[in-house]
Amino acid sequence: MAASGSGGGSSRADNGYGSQQPRRRKGPGALATAYLVIYNVVMTAGWLVIAVGLVRAYLAKGSYHSLYYSIEKPLKFFQTGALLEEYLLIAKYLPGIVPSSVVLTAFQVMSRVFLTWAVTHSVKEVQTEDSVLLFVVAWTITEIIRYSFYTFSLLNHLPYLIKWARYTLFIILYPMGVSGELLTIYAALPFVRQSGLYSISLPNKYNFSFDYYTFLILVMISYIPIFPQLYFHMLHQRRKVLSHTEEHKKSE
């Protein structure tokens, strides 16, 4: 989940594969830009709140175990807020500002929301797992950088440090986030199987059955084709963006 990336998350990959040049899209107008700036500033602040909450809880407890409870509410709020981004930012506006792959981004956003609510929230037993902290930390660092990146890009004043962090730290954060997500889903499996959570058995009037346990296994398997695409595409983007920046600096 996003593959995530965390880093959980999210990669914003370009739409062009091969030699064909992607079509330029018109960026947002002044009103839309103002809205997007406010949205990204709020999301940056929200993930900073989560980061501060983690640090304060760690200092108070003297342990990294079970820190999830200290940031549970803001995590749910701001991670769910990414759904608004998926519709307004990715589908409508951001393609005109930064290169983006809607399919990969959608997977990353939806997978994180799914993990937040349908796994971590729904299966209480996994909330004390260290794997939860693994993906929460990866998501938090990734999102602070990503929303800062979007904010400064919209303002046409992007510091090199943020650009570098956006296209470099994912190398560690994405595998870290994905590992935490997969381990958390795996830890939830026995509890889901035992409780029959979200499963529908036959017979019923709809003549339909659903096994949530099997569904979670399929979700885990889906990481196999999705995460490498996300990760290697970001590596390609890193070479493309940072090398272009270096060339631009040399030409000045």
TrEMBL record:
Give its E.C. classification number: 4.2.1.134
What does UniProt give as GO cellular component? endoplasmic reticulum membrane
Task: Return the InterPro entries for the record.
Answer: Tyr_Pase-like_PTPLA (IPR007482)
Its annotated pathway?
Lipid metabolism; fatty acid biosynthesis
Lipid metabolism as a keyword?
yes
Q: Which residues form a coiled coil?
A: none
| Catalysed conversion reaction | a very-long-chain (3R)-3-hydroxyacyl-CoA = a very-long-chain (2E)-enoyl-CoA + H2O; (3R)-hydroxyhexadecanoyl-CoA = (2E)-hexadecenoyl-CoA + H2O
| Record bears the keyword Nucleotide-binding | no
Query: How does this chain sit within the bilayer?
Result: Multi-pass membrane protein
Please give the Gene Ontology molecular function terms for this protein. very-long-chain (3R)-3-hydroxyacyl-CoA dehydratase activity
Q: Name one Pfam family in it.
A: PTPLA
Write out the annotated subcellular location: Endoplasmic reticulum membrane; Membrane
Membrane-crossing ranges are: 34-59, 97-120, 132-155, 167-192, 212-232
- The main location class comes to endoplasmic reticulum
Keywords of the record: Endoplasmic reticulum, Fatty acid biosynthesis, Fatty acid metabolism, Lipid biosynthesis, Lipid metabolism, Lyase, Membrane, Transmembrane, Transmembrane helix
Gene Ontology terms describing biological process = fatty acid elongation; sphingolipid biosynthetic process; very long-chain fatty acid biosynthetic process
Ranges of Gly residues composition bias in the record:
1-10
- Outline the segment boundaries, as ranges, of region: Disordered: 1-26
| Family, similarity comment | Belongs to the very long-chain fatty acids dehydratase HACD family.
Function of this protein? Catalyzes the third of the four reactions of the long-chain fatty acids elongation cycle. This endoplasmic reticulum-bound enzymatic process, allows the addition of two carbons to the chain of long- and very long-chain fatty acids/VLCFAs per cycle. This enzyme catalyzes the dehydration of the 3-hydroxyacyl-CoA intermediate into trans-2,3-enoyl-CoA, within each cycle of fatty acid elongation. Thereby, it participates to the production of VLCFAs of different chain lengths that are involved in multiple biological processes as precursors of membrane lipids and lipid mediators.
Name recorded for this polypeptide: Very-long-chain (3R)-3-hydroxyacyl-CoA dehydratase
Question: What organism is recorded for this protein?
Answer: Haliaeetus albicilla
